[in-house]
Amino acid sequence: MTTESAATGLWSAGDVEELTGMLAARRSRLWQVTRPADLAAWVFADPQPAPLDPPPAALDGGWADGLDERQRAVWALAGWVARMGVPEAASTAGTHWLLSRVNDGHGPLLRLTVGLLETLGVYESGEEVWLRVAGAPIVLAMEAGAADLEEWGRRRIDVVQDRTKTLAEEKLLLTCPDIDTALWLLRQPPVMSAARMLNAWVAAGPFPFESRYRPEIAARAWQAAETMIEDVTPAGVRGHRGFDREYAGSAAPVDLPAQRLFDGDAYRAGVSEHDRLCRAVIDHLGADGIPVGAGLHGVPVDLAWRDVDGRQFVAEVKSAVEGNESEQLRLGLGQVLEYRHRLATRGVIATPVLVVSRCTDEAWFDICNENQVVLLQGEAIADWKARLRSAA
Q: How far apart are CA 61 and CA 63, in angstroms?
């Protein structure tokens, strides 16, 4: 690993070149399906899961039969790690890696083996997850301040002594107390790159376990992973454009509940005004070539985008109709502060924006400034550019 990585968002072209050289020095059956340079680039790229189709083996629609909710989550995690962290996973199942279900005395355990090395273990009870990763990306991330060991400690993530001999000096063994913690850890880009680096190295080596491969186990986990891919893709993967999905608009249902305290006309007016404001923001930023979408890393923001300098913004949009201005401002501010916090825990630093139809109480501009929130009024679009620029 080169020290210049820290100056370029952790990884650099030098890291890819160095790993390419290391992999190219190995004679491997893996080069029948990929090249050393492509594999090295994959290690450091924004990680995305292998697609459902083609699968490593025939899929079974009843994969979840007989499994409770926790067991389904365990199978999903195992499949997701295989699809995220094993090179050319669909075409190399059974020849470079396998997933096995064993009982080690503490209960059923799903175990991912890549090459000669077991790189993941997760109990079906969900009570413990262990992961073997390459040490270099983690060390580099620590030096660059991109890995917070205090946070690891608070989450009870341990770096323990690994007694396996394969690459003994080059790898780390990480243990997590539960699935949620493991998912949080794997969302961190340095950790996923570390997992990919180790798997890439051992996948290019010998694999003496072909007789132990059970295609039905690989296929079951492969399909199970679909249930969590949308929720657990690591930070920096989804939202690579600054948002998860295109803005699709909103519409009030034609048939609304008939309740004495429910004003259907006011509800429809609010939905229409919300959509108008969203499209106003989209058009305003689009005039400068900035695409805007919705949602970011599983957080349900109304709008999200990156400016021309790559800075991330998220917005909560609130319509103000029928004298509900103060109520909407209070609600919107709380929501956008929550979204900023949730994104920060995923490693995403975002500038929060609150967009409202109007704001007649000047105190709200001070309130938002104190909380580092940009307040935009639908009635003052001419001011938007200056306010967003000053916030950035």
A: 6
Three-point CA angle 188, 190, 191, nearest 5°: 65
pLDDT at 250: 52
Q: Give CA–CA dist 316/330, Å, rounded.
A: 12
Contacts of residue 128, defined as CB under 8 A and 6 or more positions apart, other chains included, come to 121, 122, 175, 176, 177, 178
User: Which of the listed CATH numbers 3.40.1160.10, 3.90.660.10, 3.30.830.10, 3.40.1350.10 matches domain 245-391?
Assistant: 3.40.1350.10
Residue 135 has pLDDT above 50, yes or no: yes
- Bridge partners, 353 (sequence order): 315, 374
Q: What are 103-111's contacts with CB under 8 Å, separation 24+?
A: 110/74, 110/75, 110/78, 110/221
Burial of 24 (0-12, 13-18, 19+ CB in 10 A): middle
Half-sphere exposure of 255 (CA within 13 A, CB side): 0
Q: Tell me the pTM.
A: 0.60
Tokens of 262: 């429910």
Residues 6 or more apart from 188 whose CB is under 8 A from it? Answer: 141, 147, 234, 235, 347
Q: How far apart are CA 262 and CA 106, in angstroms?
A: 55
Asked if 119 and 103 count as a contact pair (C-beta separation under 8 A), the reply is no
Q: Which amino acid is at 123?
A: Y
Nearest residue to 139 (alpha-carbon basis) of 201, 203, 197: 197
Chain segment 283-316, per-residue pLDDT in tens: 999 999 999 998 888 788 899 999 888 889 999 9
- Spans of all domains in the chain: 3-228, 245-391
